[in-house]
């Protein structure tokens, strides 16, 4: 069970990420690759013990028909400088109306968490070597933002 930050609280997650080679329809409490889930959707639909992970190059719109059946959607950040997951999170929240857990996985570092949160990501599985305590504390460090975002739809000047 990975230790994650979810909704600014450090917790153990029952969901483990499976590679394409390890994916199967019998495993419970796992995050399956998106392509595997779509290919086996008839068997996996409406299972609350299954989530998916989406690679950086995959189109999140491909799961529009299934999005509300998923307990967790994880977005892979293959390296620190890859920002495609930010766009995917925004699409999930704004265009597809997903209300569940969006988890950042891969090369996730403390410096990214505040921007990930503003895009709608609410859970973080940090890269190896990252301090989870200071990362969780860092999320509380930003009390105001000038721009509108997923987590604060009204810009600061509209909040007066």
Describe the protein in words.
The N and C termini lie far apart (43 Å). It contains five helices and eight strands; from the N terminus they run ββββααββαβαβα. Strand 6, helix 3 and strand 7 (101-106) form a beta-alpha-beta unit. The model has no long low-confidence stretch (mean pLDDT 89). With 160 residues, the protein is an alpha/beta fold. An eight-stranded mixed sheet has the order 2-1-8-7-6-5-4-3. It has a single domain, classed as 3-Layer(aba) Sandwich (Rossmann fold).
Features:
globular; 8-stranded mixed β-sheet; 8 strands; alpha/beta; 5 helices; 160 residues; Rossmann fold
User: What's the CATH topology name?
Assistant: Rossmann fold
Overall body shape: globular
Share of residues in strands: 15-25%
Overall SS class: alpha/beta
> What's the CATH first level?
Alpha Beta
Low-confidence stretches: none
Rounded Rg: 16 Å
Task: Give a quick account of the main beta sheet: strands, pairing sense, barrel closure.
Answer: 8 strands, mixed
Level-2 CATH architecture:
3-Layer(aba) Sandwich
Relative helix content: 10-25%
Question: What's the count of strands?
Answer: 8
Number of domains: 1
Main sheet: strand order: 2-1-8-7-6-5-4-3
| Distinct helical segment count | 5
């Amino acid at each position: 069970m990975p230790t994650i930050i979810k909704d600014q609280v450090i917790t153990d997650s029952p969901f483990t990420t499976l590679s394409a080679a390890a994916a199967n329809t019998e495993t419970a409490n796992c995050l399956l690759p998106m392509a595997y889930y779509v290919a086996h959707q008839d068997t996996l639909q409406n299972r609350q013990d299954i989530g998916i992970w989406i690679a950086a190059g995959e189109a999140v719109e491909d799961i529009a028909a299934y999005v509300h059946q998923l307990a967790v959607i994880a977005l892979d950040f293959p390296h620190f400088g890859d920002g495609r997951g930010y766009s995917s999170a925004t699409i999930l929240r704004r265009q597809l109306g997903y209300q569940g857990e969006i988890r950042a996985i891969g090369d996730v570092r403390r410096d990214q968490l505040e921007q990930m949160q503003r895009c709608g990501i609410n859970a973080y599985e940090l890269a190896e070597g990252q301090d989870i305590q200071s990362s969780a504390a860092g999320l509380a460090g930003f009390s105001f933002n000038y721009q509108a975002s997923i987590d604060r739809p009204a810009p600061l000047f509209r909040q007066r």
